[in-house]
User: Which sequence fits this backbone?
């Protein structure tokens, strides 16, 4: 019984990581960048949602949409301003830029909103404890899981059933060939950032609702863990990010329960390292043979 | 062309900023009396720092309006330690060597206090903290470090005694942040005190500093059926934990320390923190004249309600100012001597120092309910 | 007098450093540079040791590691504990910290250095975090409350000369045949393997040496601050060091040194900006990266050309130097 309860805890946490991880993996797949600022796009999304709910008094779905839109906008702006000019520069330079961007976002938000945690209004998605089979389940965890699944399905539709999606897949396979085929690689990159950021923004709102409070630094740890999740699943591979996220959520939760709550972070990282040593390209990653 | 100019301007600005104090030796017998303040004005506990700053600025206004110290105005120089111990040492040294302050108020976090203390003592600059509660602050800090708040061992014991004595709790669970010295220290001392009073700790769980999800730990605690649960952390985290606890039907009273004390607690925790109890430095319900006057002036100046950090830092600064006044001189050893003899009634109570330079001060127990902190009882060591 | 270029450069560097040392010490003794500036100087020296040692791994060997702060913390805690418990002489404590860090670097490097690029980065990041969590949970090390009461044994002389020593050692390694092997790994690992170079061996070598010096720097750090906490050594700190190296230009030691000096002073110089400091600082980084992505010095070192007539074999490095 308790096991099931913890499993739900792990899954709802895992889906949050997955939503963020997908953004990481999409961006990496197309321009090979570890977007360190992605965790903060998640945070910005949470604040957009907060603004929508508190200042505009919107209900749940419009808040979610505004957060996703705001996050997407942020992601695209960051890309255009900071990453695009460096596209032909050494990878480490972009990495540093991404890290600096992350710090910048955190402090811009802190300046405007202060470090005090802001609270999501209680009535946005009222908490109802569901008593089922002897378990006490927070209804919001179930909603998070459902919404995440819906978003991932929509994403899969976009990627596999639309022309834009096809262009995205082509560009991440081989940018130059895609350009030769007439694909506007720059807009595809922007679209990729937009979609990835929108998902992170959604995660931000969901987290804001589930844990009530948001603060400018809330993106650091989840961003890191989501990044680990993306690598775990095989970076650049969207289903990999999904599975990676779920595994991270479950491992974190179960190690807190069955091993020790103090070591759960270390354990999560250890699992990552073990998996990478055994399967260096990640769980779903393909072993690419580098040709000379 | 633009980037070259920009670089030039930036480096000039920096150089000026950096060398501003180079070689300057402030006069210590005329002109404003400069007192350094080290607070976390950015970083994760910056709201505490801002409150502290507000409190100290209020004092500055009051003292200067009344003519300053022996005719000289006082000026508080604020530096941000970001809540980090190494930054605290850097800015503290800056205040001491560059700005030639006669004393330092702060830092706020125990870690920063422990780091800066030995440096203050080495430089013979008196340092007074209103909120560093870890015993090591004065133990390892040296003879120039004073603190005007109670220490964690005392606070932990107070909560423990209240739990077993007043709430008649026989079993308790603790959920704390094992990466945070405040949380960990309080948890340790509560456990000691509770066990000493005959109680039993049935569960002890931890989390990492920025964790938001506590369901796993709470789910583990629930079946052990504790009479009370101790949450020795800051209001933001505590509010969250409380909500998640109530969501899985944990109904027992939750206990905490002064870290709960903020109006923000209710924003985050809502009704989840009803019927909870905390130990604190002072009670806003206190009808003493000083408390009422302070709250009035604070509200008038900032349009905010004074919280514990504002009070504690105001008090610490006030005690330091008083010591400087009594000493009549602005050199370190004289001020230190005057500090040691302090016996002053401040907003948070009457303060005097023991041999360890810790304040001999009581604590209060407050009941957290319906959006307010209500006074329950006062305990004196 | 004809001598090998490396030897000549080494002597020049040593002489220059000794002169610099006496100048700085004089300024500090006469309080022209007061204690605040001395503090900054000491921190600069410690940071340079970390940047230069990291450069060996990232810049020379091309292996992206995000866990350098973890090795710093190992050295910091190990040296501190052995001083507190056994009261050994300072150099022994430092060596103990460095060797332990290097050893753990070896143990970590062995299984993970076969990973490529970003995977290696995340793995080293993971190890850095694991080390941090472990320290937080070990009571004897103070855990989350930190380790206080470390005797203040570090002073400017110590950090300065260890810094010079580190620079000299790393410089000589980079110019040696092992160093060239490391660079070949950076340039094209497959080609290097094809040429018979044991790439794993050199990757591990660079990693262990880098970690060793990180440990020494850690020991200097803990004996200066007198109090350390595990959070100080998180992945954000590792990122700081990577920034120093990238800013300076990978593979360029002078670049690493100069960028470290600038980036350590920058937050101090910007203190007057208060709230806006952490907005201007990252903005400055972004702008610098935008307009000079190869870092301050690229892959070039400070040119010693003017001394060329005193040495032989002056063009030997031409094939390896600069791209």
Assistant:
């Amino acid at each position: 019984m308790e096991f099931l309860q913890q499993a739900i805890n792990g899954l709802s946490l895992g889906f949050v990581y997955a939503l963020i991880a997908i953004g990481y993996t999409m961006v990496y797949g197309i321009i090979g960048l570890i977007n360190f600022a992605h965790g903060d796009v998640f945070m910005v999304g949470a604040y957009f949602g907060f603004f929508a709910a508190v200042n505009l008094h919107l209900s749940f779905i419009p808040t979610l949409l505004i957060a996703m839109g705001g996050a997407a906008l942020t992601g695209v702006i960051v890309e255009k301003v900071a990453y695009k000019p460096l596209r032909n520069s050494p990878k480490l330079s972009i990495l540093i830029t991404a890290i600096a961007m992350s710090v910048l976002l955190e402090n811009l938000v802190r300046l405007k909103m202060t470090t005090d945690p802001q609270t999501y209004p209680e009535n946005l998605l009222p908490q109802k404890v569901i008593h089922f089979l002897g378990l006490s389940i927070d209804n919001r965890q179930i909603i998070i899981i459902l919404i995440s699944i819906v978003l991932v399905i929509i994403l899969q539709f976009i990627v596999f059933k639309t022309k834009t999606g096809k262009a995205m897949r082509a560009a991440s396979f081989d940018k130059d060939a895609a350009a030769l085929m007439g694909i506007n690689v720059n807009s595809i990159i922007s679209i990729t950032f937009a979609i990835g950021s929108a998902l992170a923004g959604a995660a931000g709102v969901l987290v804001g609702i589930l844990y009530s409070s948001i603060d400018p630094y809330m993106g650091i740890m989840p961003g890191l863990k989501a990044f680990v999740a993306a690598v775990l699943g095989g970076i650049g591979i969207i289903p990999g990010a999904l599975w990676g996220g779920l595994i991270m959520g479950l491992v974190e939760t179960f190690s807190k329960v069955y091993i020790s709550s103090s070591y759960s972070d270390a354990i999560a990282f250890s699992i990552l390292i073990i998996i990478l040593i055994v399967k260096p390209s990640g769980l779903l990653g393909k072993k690419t043979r580098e040709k000379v | 062309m633009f980037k070259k100019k920009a670089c030039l301007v930036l480096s000039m600005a920096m150089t000026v900023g950096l060398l501003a104090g180079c070689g300057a030796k402030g006069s210590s017998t005329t002109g404003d009396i400069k007192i350094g303040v080290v607070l976390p004005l950015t970083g994760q506990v910056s709201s505490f720092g801002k409150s502290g700053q507000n409190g100290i600025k209020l004092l500055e206004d009051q003292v200067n309006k009344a003519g300053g110290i022996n005719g000289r105005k006082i000026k508080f120089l604020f530096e941000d330690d970001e809540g980090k111990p190494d930054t605290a040492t850097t800015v503290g040294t800056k205040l001491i060597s560059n700005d030639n302050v006669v004393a330092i108020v702060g830092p706020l976090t125990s870690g920063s206090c422990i780091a800066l203390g030995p440096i203050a003592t080495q430089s013979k600059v008196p340092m007074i903290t209103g909120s560093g509660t870890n015993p090591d602050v004065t133990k390892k800090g040296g003879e120039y470090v004073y603190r005007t708040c109670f220490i964690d061992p005392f606070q932990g014991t107070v909560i423990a005694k209240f739990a077993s004595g007043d709430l008649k709790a026989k079993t308790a669970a603790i959920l704390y942040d094992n990466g945070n010295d405040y949380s960990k220290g309080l948890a340790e001392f509560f456990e000691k005190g509770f066990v000493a009073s005959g109680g039993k700790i049935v569960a002890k769980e931890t989390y990492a500093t920025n964790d938001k999800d506590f369901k796993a730990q709470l789910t583990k605690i629930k079946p052990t059926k504790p009479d009370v649960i101790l949450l020795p952390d800051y209001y933001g985290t505590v509010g969250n934990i409380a909500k998640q606890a109530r969501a899985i039907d944990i109904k027992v009273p939750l206990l905490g320390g002064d870290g709960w004390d903020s109006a923000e607690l209710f924003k985050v925790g809502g009704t989840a923190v009803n019927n909870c109890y905390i130990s604190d430095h002072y009670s806003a319900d206190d009808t003493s004249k000083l408390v009422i006057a302070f709250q009035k002036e604070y509200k008038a100046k900032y349009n905010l309600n004074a919280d514990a950090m504002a009070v504690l830092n105001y008090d610490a600064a006030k005690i330091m100012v008083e010591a400087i006044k009594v000493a009549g001189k602005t050199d370190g050893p004289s001020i230190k001597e005057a500090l040691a003899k302090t016996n002053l009634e401040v907003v948070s109570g009457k303060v005097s120092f023991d041999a360890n330079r810790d304040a001999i001060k009581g604590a209060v127990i407050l009941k957290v309910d319906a959006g307010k902190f209500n006074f329950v009882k006062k305990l004196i060591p | 007098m004809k001598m090998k270029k490396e030897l000549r450069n080494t002597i020049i560097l040593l002489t220059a450093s000794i002169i610099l040392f006496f100048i700085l010490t004089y300024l500090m003794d006469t309080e022209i540079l007061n204690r605040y500036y001395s503090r900054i100087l000491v921190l600069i020296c410690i940071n340079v040791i970390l940047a230069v040692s990291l450069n060996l791994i990232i810049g020379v060997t091309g292996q992206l590691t995000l866990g350098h702060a973890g090795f710093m913390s190992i050295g910091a805690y190990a040296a501190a504990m052995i001083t507190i418990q056994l009261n050994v002489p300072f150099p022994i404590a430092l060596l103990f910290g460095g060797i332990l860090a290097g050893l753990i670097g070896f143990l970590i490097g062995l299984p993970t250095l076969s990973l490529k690029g970003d995977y290696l980065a995340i793995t080293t990041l993971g190890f850095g975090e694991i080390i941090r969590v472990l320290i937080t949970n070990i009571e004897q090390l103070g855990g989350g409350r930190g380790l206080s009461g470390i005797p203040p044994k570090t002073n400017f002389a110590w950090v300065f000369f260890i810094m010079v020593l580190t620079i000299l050692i790393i410089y000589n390694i980079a110019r040696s045949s092992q160093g060239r092997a490391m660079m070949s790994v950076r340039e094209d690992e497959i080609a290097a393997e094809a040429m018979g170079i044991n790439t794993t061996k050199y990757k591990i070598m660079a990693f262990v040496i880098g970690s060793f010096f990180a440990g020494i720097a850690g020991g200097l750090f803990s004996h200066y601050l007198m109090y350390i906490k595990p959070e100080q050594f998180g992945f954000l700190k590792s990122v700081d060091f990577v920034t120093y190296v990238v800013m300076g230009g990978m593979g360029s030691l002078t670049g690493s040194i100069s960028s470290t000096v600038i980036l350590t002073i920058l937050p101090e110089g910007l203190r007057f900006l208060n709230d806006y400091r952490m907005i201007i600082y990252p903005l400055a980084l972004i702008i610098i990266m935008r307009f000079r992505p190869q870092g301050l010095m690229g892959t070039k070192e400070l040119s010693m050309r003017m001394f060329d007539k005193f040495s032989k074999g002056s063009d030997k490095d031409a094939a390896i130097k600069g791209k």
